[in-house]
């Protein structure tokens, strides 16, 4: 996702601690953890709307090995190079169900983590409070549009080592979790817009110049 225009177990071996409700604590040691991932990785160019890998569901992660670890490192490096707050594997052309994030919530807390095989919880009606803030996407560079999404999200999946995890977010971070999960099932945020709004977003993209390297749709 593009930036907007405008009693616990110890952290060990890359495994995040969890709180009393079972949600990962992804707000601790964020600078050190993100920097470590990024230092091991290599930034890759970003795929853009129209690239087939963005428009189909990605494959489940079934092997949690050194190859996956390297992909995660490269994703963090790519995310930072593009100045994003979230990145799905298919945004760098990889057909795997994994995303990374380095995203603040509306209270300013920084969240850093990895989710493989994410599934969003269905929210009860009392938790479905919609936020219609601006949304952008690294795969639709320079374009933004208002999009209503729930301001609370819970994602279940696995970390890069295969451990089950549950991540929750509010506000901007909730939007990020929904946005990145969408990517891995073949949806871009512009697919949730009206035809007129989608056309306007694509116009913005056509008229803009990305600030990072992209993969041309030949």
From TrEMBL:
InterPro entries attached to this UniProt entry: Peptide_deformylase, Peptide_deformylase_sf
Q: How is the cofactor bound?
A: Binds 1 Fe(2+) ion.
Query: What keywords were assigned to this record?
Result: Hydrolase, Iron, Metal-binding, Protein biosynthesis
Q: Where is the active site?
A: 180
Q: Where does Fe cation bind?
A: 137, 179, 183
Record-level Gene Ontology MF annotations: metal ion binding; peptide deformylase activity
Its UniProt entry gives the catalysed reaction(s) as: N-terminal N-formyl-L-methionyl-[peptide] + H2O = N-terminal L-methionyl-[peptide] + formate
Q: What is its EC number?
A: 3.5.1.88
Cofactors (names) = Fe(2+)
Query: What's a BP term from Gene Ontology annotated to this protein?
Result: translation
Q: Which Pfam families match?
A: Pep_deformylase
Q: Which top-level enzyme class is recorded in the Swiss-Prot or TrEMBL entry?
A: hydrolase
Q: What does this protein do?
A: Removes the formyl group from the N-terminal Met of newly synthesized proteins. Requires at least a dipeptide for an efficient rate of reaction. N-terminal L-methionine is a prerequisite for activity but the enzyme has broad specificity at other positions.
- Similarity section: Belongs to the polypeptide deformylase family.
PANTHER family from the xrefs?
Answer: PEPTIDE DEFORMYLASE, PEPTIDE DEFORMYLASE, MITOCHONDRIAL
Please give the NCBIfam families that the UniProt record associates with this protein: pept_deformyl, PRK00150.1-3
Protein name as annotated: Peptide deformylase
The organism of origin for this protein = Streptomyces albidoflavus
Q: What is this protein's gene name?
A: def
